[in-house]
């Protein structure tokens, strides 16, 4: 493998507290140096990153690659190409495939497929319960040994608190974090959007903030009881952020993530009944959005994760109420996050940290999320101020379900590098 | 009195001196079971009632043999064959037995605290032969006797206990007794089976017992009940056996003289592989032999000649 010399870029690595114009040298798939020296290694490929930011590749804690079972929406090949186009070098894929990733053979299948066809690192998340049914524990030890990095019944929250407790205790024996999609299904009922004036006006059934907050409260209490690691997926409410903040003050091992779309849009986006605005958790109020941004800025919210949820057009063109929940996220995440940076809501360092060092720490990945010497050479190079227009038709993803089609934003990924290999080039 | 207590209810009640007296007496009684005529007249004319209100093979037979070798008259009752099956409550049953003037009642019951409640209500001496998830003090004493026999000492040893600590009365009595006698205790197994607050027993919790194995003098496995998987304490028995069961490969880093113990009943292939259960490290059957001696010692110390002297 030829050495790689990335020159003149503004290198930002929050894990190593680096921010300055420097050159990055990659040897044998590892970071070899981050240096002001200009001597190019012999035979090196050179990338001129002048005017661009060079950062550790982004790590997405939360995505749906749909393979095995729903390859018509997405597969590991297309999903990982979309991730690479968005600057992601590592993505975690949720267990709600068909069959469900609740045993070692499905985890092994995903990892084998990723080895053959993935552009980026794919880390499977195993199920908490068999078949995501919330009744019996999945083969959590086997999942851990096969390479699952966490467990989650994402989308089908474990409603039985005793089973959630047992799962947290058992998973912690194998040092796996439990990712909770915190939602009380009874309270959600048949709701399709945030419950409030907008849902009343639109005549759509509401999902109250309390459906998320009661379960975050429950899971934090179980975390306190068991001492096991809890990661709250896609926090969407002001109350949820506040509870995580309090839990962290109590030194509980709780972390959480937020999606770019909850940081960008509110329930007002549902006016017009665009099914691409139908997500779970739903787009919330402006106050919730403000508190999410504040929580991200102060570190209460550790990570930004896309919840990339591809759906075929046939699942979205059936009216708002009948549509599937979810939107794609890999290819719009960076410019949406940079909008907060350009608007001076969060710093560039915090934005990159939430996409690199923090998710790496949550998954206990020692060699990723940093440009430290010896780390895996997973790198993104992007122009933070370059104008882009979102074109859903041009997505690498198989699915187009985004509410951001046609949006004009700033921030363009130029190179994505995984283990020293360029896997995406604008 | 030879012991500080009239009853054997909990390890907590025994002093260190009591424990040493029990061990010493048991060691001297062990020889009786080796004789051609395995009987001494020590408890002639004494009556012992064995009340096993919960299933038991080992402990029930061990008590009965101990009693018979000391020439006591013994009566056995079980839940199904007693008036309790007709609806009589436990205390009434025990008061009726008491009215027939036994010297000792031995109680096994599924309710934690049942022997202590009975000891309050009757004049006889009470021995706890296992109560719910609470304690099994005679098992702990025979475990300690076996350890001393094999190792030649007690103080400063390190014992690992792996398995269902949460539901195990043996583990509770062992932890209390071993800590009392200066043994370091490490417990392991899935966190679902580690009781909250167990650190207060002064034990070290080590979820992956592999990490602790090189430091152990004794490794004790506990039975995994099949129904625990249905309670979501682990996904299934196959996973339990794969990650927490002990086999010879796991023992590669163990000391040459590390001893394997198990209070029984053994679920072969689940918490312990057959080659370990039957291997040279195993003293599982020695534990059973010593059980008779320990129970003989307790009976003698509670009601033998001179036991009522102050």
Features:
heterodimer; A: 426 residues; alpha/beta; eight-stranded mixed sheet; four-stranded parallel sheet; 13 helices; B: alpha/beta; five-stranded parallel sheet; 9 strands
Low-confidence stretches of chain B: none
Tell me the span between the first and last alpha carbons of chain A. 22 Å
Give me the Rg of chain A, rounded: 20 Å
Gross geometry of chain A: globular
Counting DSSP E segments of at least 2 residues, the number of strands of chain A comes to: 18
Q: Spell out the helices and strands of chain B N to C.
A: HEHEHEHEHEHEEEHEHH
Summed up:
Chain A is of the alpha/beta class and 426 residues long. Chain A is 30% helix and 23% strand.
Describe the secondary structure blueprint for this structure.
The complex is a heterodimer of chains A (426) and B (310).
Chain A: E1 4-13, E2 18-27, E3 30-35, E4 45-48, E5 53-56, E6 58-63, H1 76-85, E7 88-93, H2 104-117, E8 121-126, H3 140-146, E9 150-151, H4 161-173, E10 178-180, H5 185-188, E11 193-194, H6 197-202, E12 206-207, H7 209-226, E13 230-232, H8 238-249, E14 254-258, H9 260-264, H10 286-298, E15 303-304, H11 333-342, H12 348-355, H13 357-362, E16 379-389, E17 408-418, E18 421-425
Parallel strand pairs in A: 1-4, 1-5, 6-7, 7-8, 8-9, 10-13, 11-12, 13-14, 14-15
Antiparallel strand pairs in A: 1-2, 2-3, 5-16, 16-17, 17-18
Helix pairs in contact in A: 2-3, 4-7, 7-8, 8-10
Chain B: H1 16-29, E1 47-52, H2 58-69, E2 73-78, H3 90-99, E3 104-109, H4 114-121, E4 125-131, H5 137-151, E5 158-162, H6 169-180, E6 184-188, E7 204-205, E8 218-221, H7 237-244, E9 259-261, H8 274-277, H9 284-303
Parallel strand pairs in B: 1-2, 1-3, 3-4, 5-6, 5-8, 6-7, 8-9
Helix pairs in contact in B: 1-5, 1-9, 2-9, 5-6, 5-9
């Amino acid at each position: 493998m030829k050495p790689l010399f990335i020159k003149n870029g503004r290198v930002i690595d929050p894990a190593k507290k680096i921010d300055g114009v420097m050159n990055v040298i990659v040897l044998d798939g590892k970071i070899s140096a981050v240096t002001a020296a200009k001597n190019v290694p012999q035979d090196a490929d050179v990338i001129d990153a002048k005017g661009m930011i060079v950062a550790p590749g982004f790590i997405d804690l939360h995505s749906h690659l749909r393979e095995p079972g729903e390859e018509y929406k997405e597969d590991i090949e297309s999903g990982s190409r979309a991730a690479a186009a968005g600057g992601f070098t590592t993505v975690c894929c949720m267990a709600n495939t068909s069959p469900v990733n609740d045993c070692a053979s499905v985890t092994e299948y995903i990892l084998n497929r990723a080895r053959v066809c993935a552009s980026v690192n794919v880390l499977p998340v195993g199920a908490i319960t068999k078949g995501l049914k919330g009744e019996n524990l999945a083969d959590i030890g086997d999942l851990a040994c096969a390479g699952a990095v966490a467990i989650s019944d994402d989308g089908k929250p474990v409603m039985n608190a005793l089973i959630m407790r047992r799962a947290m205790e058992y998973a912690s024996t194998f040092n796996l974090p439990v990712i909770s999609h915190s939602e009380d299904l009874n309270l959600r009922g048949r709701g399709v959007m945030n419950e409030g004036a907008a849902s009343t006006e639109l005549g759509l059934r509401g999902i109250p903030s309390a459906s998320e907050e009661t379960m975050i409260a429950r899971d934090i209490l179980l975390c306190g009881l068991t001492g096991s690691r809890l990661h709250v997926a896609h926090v969407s409410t002001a109350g949820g952020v506040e509870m995580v903040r309090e839990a962290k003050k109590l030194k509980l091992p709780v972390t959480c993530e937020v999606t770019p779309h909850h940081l960008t849009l509110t329930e007002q986006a549902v006016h017009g009944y665009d099914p691409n605005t139908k997500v779970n958790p739903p787009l919330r109020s402006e106050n919730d959005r403000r508190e999410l941004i504040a929580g991200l800025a102060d570190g209460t919210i550790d990570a930004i994760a896309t919840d990339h949820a591809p759906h075929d057009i046939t699942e979205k063109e059936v009216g708002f109420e009948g549509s599937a929940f979810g939107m794609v996220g890999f290819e719009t995440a960076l410019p949406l996050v940079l909008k907060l940076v350009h608007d001076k809501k969060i710093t560039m360092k915090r934005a990159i940290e939430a996409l690199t060092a923090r998710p790496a720490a949550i998954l206990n990945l020692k060699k990723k999320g940093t440009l430290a010497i010896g780390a895996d050479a997973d790198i993104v190079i992007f122009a933070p101020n370059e104008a882009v227009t979102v074109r859903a038709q041009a997505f690498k993803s198989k699915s187009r379900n985004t509410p951001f089609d046609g949006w004009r934003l700033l921030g363009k990924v130029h190179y994505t590098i995984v283990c020293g290999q360029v896997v995406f080039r604008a | 009195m030879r012991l500080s207590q009239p009853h054997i209810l909990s390890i907590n009640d025994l002093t260190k001196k009591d424990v040493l007296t029990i061990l010493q007496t048991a060691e001297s009684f062990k020889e009786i079971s080796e004789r051609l005529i395995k009987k001494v007249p020590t408890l002639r004319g004494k009556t012992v009632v064995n009340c096993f209100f919960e299933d038991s093979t080992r402990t029930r037979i061990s008590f009965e043999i101990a009693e018979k070798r000391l020439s006591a008259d013994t009566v056995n009752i079980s839940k199904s064959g007693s008036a309790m099956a007709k609806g009589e409550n436990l205390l009434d049953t025990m008061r009726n037995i008491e009215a027939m003037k036994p010297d000792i009642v031995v109680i096994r019951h599924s309710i934690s605290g049942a022997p202590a409640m009975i000891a309050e209500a009757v004049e006889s001496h009470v021995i706890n032969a296992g109560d719910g998830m609470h304690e099994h003090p005679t098992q702990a004493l025979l475990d300690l006797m076996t350890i001393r026999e094999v190792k030649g000492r007690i103080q400063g040893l390190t014992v690992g206990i792996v398995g269902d600590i949460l539901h195990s009365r043996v583990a509770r009595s062992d932890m209390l007794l071993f800590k009392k006698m200066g043994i370091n205790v490490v417990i392991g197994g899935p966190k679902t089976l580690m009781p909250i607050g167990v650190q207060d027993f002064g034990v070290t919790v080590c979820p992956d017992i592999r990490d602790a194995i090189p430091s152990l003098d004794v490794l004790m496995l506990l039975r995994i009940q099949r129904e625990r998987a249905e309670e979501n304490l682990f996904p299934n028995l196959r996973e339990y056996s794969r990650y927490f069961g002990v086999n010879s490969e796991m023992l590669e880093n163990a000391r040459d003289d590390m001893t394997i113990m198990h209070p029984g009943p053994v679920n072969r292939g689940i918490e312990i592989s057959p080659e370990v259960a039957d291997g040279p490290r195993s003293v599982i059957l020695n534990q059973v032999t010593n059980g008779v001696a320990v129970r003989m010692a307790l009976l003698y110390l509670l009601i033998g000649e001179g036991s009522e002297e102050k």
